[in-house]
Design brief:
rod-shaped; 66 residues; mainly alpha; 1 helix
Length: 66
Amino acid sequence: MWGRWDVVLLLIAAYVAVMSLVRLMSNRRQQLTERFRSELRAEQQRKAYEAARQRRREARKRDRAA
């Protein structure tokens, strides 16, 4: 049978394991969130650049036609 100290040590070990896992998962979530935001920012910048480029092309076409 398990003694009182065995149970106490088991509970402490379980607490440390769970808290470590929670901390690791939280850090990973933070990394993924930052990566997603960075990719989203880059995509928005790329789209803005492409839209400006397209407007410049259309303006040049209008200037040539006029």
